[in-house]
Amino acid sequence: MDGNSFGKIFRLTTFGESHGKAIGGIIDGCPAGLEFDEAFLQKEMQRRKPGQSEITTQRLESDEVEFLSGVFEGKTLGTPIGFLIRNEDQRSSDYESIKHIYRPGHADAVWDRKFGFRDYRGGGRSSARETASRVVGGAVAKILLRTYGIRIHAYVSKVKHVELKTPFQDIDFSLTEKSLVRCPDPAISEKMIAVIESARNSGDSVGGTIDCVISGVEAGLGDPVFDKLDAMLAHAMLSINATRGFEMFRGFESSGLMGSENNLVNTGIVGGISDGHPIVFRTAFKPVSTISMAQQAMTNTGEEVTLEAKGRHDPCVLPRAVPIVEAMAAMVMADMVLRMRSDRV
To answer: How far is CA 81 from CA 60, 136, 143, 290, in A?
Structure first.
């Protein structure tokens, strides 16, 4: 299945399931001689890992990355970078009661339809646990992008009805990591946290949006037909668990403008190719499907049952999804930078 790989030149292939022994991946296409900042990489993993606050799942994973190949004496070799992340805090027994039940809104039923067999423990490979490997790939991509002056900042812009409306030009990105919900506005952040805590206390979940700003991008990245830069970003974002929508800077809003108005907006990408301005996009995340309040569900034999799911789940994926959005954006940009180097003599 090629669906386990992402990218053309800078390419990540991942493996592993939520409750297996480990997850991991292989990064191909990273140039040789890159200073390998392992401390930075581990910091990126800490941003995504579970159990980091009261508003995230309480599954406890150290998410220490073990590199198996591709790095020597602090530099990349230009060969495949193999890595492993061991699963340490699985509680597979939590899922025994839903072995034959399809959770509403989850991939359980369609996975059975496609493969005829599934790992029901935490969703197996359909679990967001898989995204830890993406953060490793994204961290390596970010290290590469430093050499080109490209920076990526994502933040939570909306939780349910609470929204940050500050223009991205006026946002202090240094405040993002100081917020439990990763919203760079302290006042709005507190309101978002209250909404998430209310959902958690009632056994429910909430969704929202994450905005991402890519700056320092030179003009010329992207291809004009199927591999438009914005199309590749959309592909990357919609491949993340629980995503339901994607738009470039005020994309849907632009559908209500006149051409004379829309032509004045700098979107960062024109005709699928970067124009040198900051690239801004928004990704929408649905509420988490697995919740502890009672829901009507179906078994694999077609019987209707009432489900009250056990286990440890995020009441809102947004805080932990911020580094995942950045990671996927970084891999797109790294791939496009390397592809551009082969576009002309």
So the answer is: 26, 10, 14, 34
